[in-house]
Amino acid sequence: MTELTRRRLLASAGVGAAGIGLGGAAGYLVGTETAEASDGTGSVPFYGEHQAGIATPAQDRLHFAAFDLVDPSPSALRELLQEWSAAAAEMTAGQMVGDANSVQLAPPDDTGETVGLLPSRLTVTFGFGPSLFERRELRLSGKRPAALREIPPLPADELNAGESGGDLCVQACSDDPQVAFHAIRNLARIGRGTVVMRWSQLGFGRTASTSRSQETPRNLMGFKDGTANIKAEDGEAMDRFVWVGGEGPAWMRGGTYLVTRRIRMLLEIWDRSPLADQEETIGRDKYRGAPLGGSEEFEPLDLEAERSGKPMIPIDAHVRLASASANDGERILRRGYSFTDGVDESLGELEAGLFFICFQRDPERQFVAIQRRLGSFDALNEYIKHVGSAVFAVPPGARSGGYVGETLLG
Amino acid sequence: MNRFALRTSLAAVGVGLVALLAAGCGSSGDAPPGAKKMAFTLTDAGCEPNSAKASAGPITFEVENAGTSKVTELEVTDGETILGEVENLSDGLSGSFSLTLEKGEYTLYCPGGDDEKGTLTVSGELQAENSPEVEAAIAQYRKYLEENTAGLVAATEPFVAAVVAGNIAKAKALYPAARIPYERIEPVAESFGSLDPRIDARENDVPASEFEGFHRIEKALWVEDSAVGMTPVAKQLLADVEELQAKVKKVELQAVQIANGANELLGEVSASKITGEEERYSHTDLVDFEANVEGAEVAFESVEPLLSKKDPKLAKEIEASFEDVYASLDPYRRGAGFVSYTELSKADTRKLAQEIDALAEELSQVPAQIVS
User: Fold this and answer.
1) How distant is the Cα of B13 from the closest Cα of chain A, in angstroms?
2) How far is A273 from chain B (nearest CA, A)?
3) Is B6 close to A381, i.e. CB distance below 8 A?
4) Are residues B200 and B156 in contact, defined by beta-carbon separation less than 8 angstroms?
5) Rounded CA gap, B143 and B75, in Å?
6) Which of A274, A293, A296 is the closest to B16 by Cβ?
7) pLDDT 10s per residue in chain A (410 long)?
8) Which residue among A19, A223, B61, B139 is the one 20 to 30 A from A237 at the CA level?
């Protein structure tokens, strides 16, 4: 059964593929599709030098979950990561999870909601939080990378513990929201007894482009976001700013560090601020995306430009303070998603914003340094609140037959 | 504190005024009062005239196509930035747009012409020639500002004296009243750089070593139940509010800035009063809430005659919405003050927040109305 794609199962069950929009169901092989296709047919290999979901051109949807270990024995953790990797490999290939999906007297291994759905470029990315290395039973404290430390309190933080931290994380990205949800749901199910979910976040739309092939999307403030992001095609920048190299530890080589920040946007206040104010807050033209004073989205920021003796891009504009030149040349790979979680109970306002995700070699030197500056001076702070925060070490990818985390636990 | 308002709202409005007018313009944009008219013709050669001079201030560009099929557009740009344009003017059509320009060299751009780019040289200072109504609005609001900075100093003095004397009960009793005048005029206070963070930063707004002002003392009184070590903080606070009073006397005001300030005050209510973040130790948030609303109301009333000329219906709606907001606070009044924030349920804060949102949405329409 593991060899069956979700599409094949449908065909053999007599449902046929007519309604799915692709011909030749019986002969459908995921491997022949291109990884880039965002129409659902693309699939991204799970195994590789780096974990997928980092340099992968950002998919449209996200389901992210943080877990806490409840059975902190080394063998339980190893088994969990083996099972998670195997299941992730199946799901990313568009296959059902597990072997037992047709036993009448048993609950199916796979929860089933993606039967008939395409692989949709699903990626599943695993990470380890700093608290994992403090579990005495695991005896991992000597292996904790120096770069993996809790994010310190930062200016303007309004964090909720319930939306922060975690021993382990799983980032599932896909162009189909149900495929991403399915991945988290099934991994949580596999983990029962070993881990419990601490918090989870759905993201309904990507807010960053991580590839030159992608249009820059807009965040919920209506501005293009991620114009100046590192692009995956820029291998030199990826090596310099994202992938862990010789600095070690050896088990992290080819890995990276993931920081999440749940950023609530005060959209009601933002929506009633004048256009000129919005543009000066961000430092870009709202519609074209060009830096203030410029005309093209991708032109470099001219931080020196002035009009009537005042900087065109104000001193507290978000793009100025977040720019590499304001941060000793440091950059991060952003890969965030817009979210909305209903109505804020105590305000009656939209509970919405940006689930910020970034990848970097050294969170302290990169994200923390940048956010320390933004939290203190960014004009945008008037319209946002950071309510959740977490950091994870993302180990390198697994070889076929191996598992993510093998370099640490193997 | 308006989270991290380092930018002076004065400067923001100065730039914003130009940008607002530029953004609002189009072939049928309303000409600002007193705008000087400049006529241009589109010809095969490009813009005619190709070189022009003007005085700083509002200008209406009247553009006519005099029989060219090559050029159908005139843009005024500052460097690469298009400030205003009229497009799709084919043979015989005309159109106009208005801009308020500061001193500088601008480009007249007629794409397709033999000589596409010309120069518009603007000289002189941008003169805000205020009408008597605008002057009256500014005078009324200035009076309010000065009353409240004087009131702030007068209310801070006994509060500081109680802190210095170590009289915690008295300091606690005087604290809410000292907050009121500040909260009424907060957007103006924020225009003086680091003065606002020194007076009004919350604990997580600034590095621990820079946490001072009202909220540092609030924490000492309510959390630490002690005024030990607070004497220098209290004395600095008094010096800072006196500095604010002196600075406010010299502040330049514009009508649009006053209207924007009303809007910012309601943003303050939504972001930090309804959430209980402002007075997180004393829980006197509703006192600040009402002070913010009062400040917004006076700012609005100052510019209301300007608005009533343009849109009397909106002015009436805003008046009614202010009444609704005050009414929504009534159930929580206790004597001269309010119940503790901790007594509010989520349903209570939700109702208050939604009343503020309704008012603020209307109020946000005011600045653009009163400048055009």
Assistant:
1) 9
2) 7
3) no
4) no
5) 43
6) A274
7) 444 567 655 544 444 333 333 333 332 333 333 566 778 889 999 999 999 999 999 999 999 999 999 998 999 999 999 999 999 999 999 999 998 899 999 999 999 999 999 999 999 999 999 999 999 999 999 999 999 999 999 988 899 999 999 999 999 999 999 999 999 999 999 999 999 999 999 999 999 888 888 889 999 999 998 888 999 899 999 999 999 999 989 999 999 999 999 999 999 999 999 999 999 999 999 999 999 988 889 999 999 988 777 899 999 999 999 999 889 899 999 999 999 999 998 999 999 999 999 999 999 999 999 999 999 889 999 999 999 999 999 999 999 989 999 999 98
8) A223
Rounded Cα distance, A354 and B135, in Å: 43
Alpha-carbon distance of B197 to B139, in angstroms, equals 27
**Average pLDDT of every residue of chain B:** 88
Which residues lie across from A64 on neighbouring strands? A171, A201
Size of interface A-B (CB pairs under 8 A): 124
A305 part of contact set with chain B, CB < 8 Å: yes
Please tell me which of the candidates B204, B351, B353 has its beta carbon nearest to residue A156: B204
Sorted by sequence, the CB contacts under 8 Å of residue B325 that are 6+ apart come out as B293, B355, B356, B359
Question: Cβ(B189)–Cβ(B182) under 8 Å?
Answer: yes
Is the Cα dihedral A96, A98, A104, A105 positive or negative?
A: negative
What is the distance of C-alpha B3 from the center of its chain?
15
Nearest Cβ partner of B350 from A277, A348, A378? A348
- Residue of B360, B243, B239 lying closest to B292 (CA atoms): B360
Query: Per the structure block, which two tokens stand in for A376?
Result: 């203190």
Q: Do B12 and A315 touch (CB under 8 A)?
A: no
Residue A38 three-state SS: coil
Token pair, residue A320, equals: 């100025």
DSSP A37: -
Q: Coil, strand, or helix at residue B296?
A: helix
- Does residue B247 belong to the interface with chain A, where contact is any CB pair within 8 Å? no
Which DSSP string corresponds to A248-314? S-GGGTT-EEEEEEEEEE-HHHHHTS-HHHHHHHHTB-TTT-PBTT-SSTTSPP-TT-EETTEESS-
Give the integer Cα–Cα distance in Å for B96 and B75. 11
Measure CB to CB from residue A348 to each of B14, B82, B353 and give the nearest one. B353
Asked if residues A294 and B81 have their Cβ atoms less than 8 Å apart, the reply is yes
List, in order, residues 6 or more apart from B345 with CB less than 8 Å away.
none
B272 contact A CB<8A: no
Cβ-defined contacts of B199-204 (< 8 Å, 24+): B199/B1, B199/B237, B199/B240, B199/B241, B199/B244, B200/B1, B201/B1, B202/B1, B202/B272, B202/B277, B202/B278, B202/B280, B203/B280, B204/A153, B204/A155, B204/A156, B204/A157, B204/A158
SS3 assignment, position A53: coil
Q: Closest Cα of chain A to B162: distance in Å?
A: 31
ipTM above 0.90, yes or no: no
Q: SS in 3 state form for B68-95?
A: CCCCCCEEEEECCEEEEEECCCCCCCEE
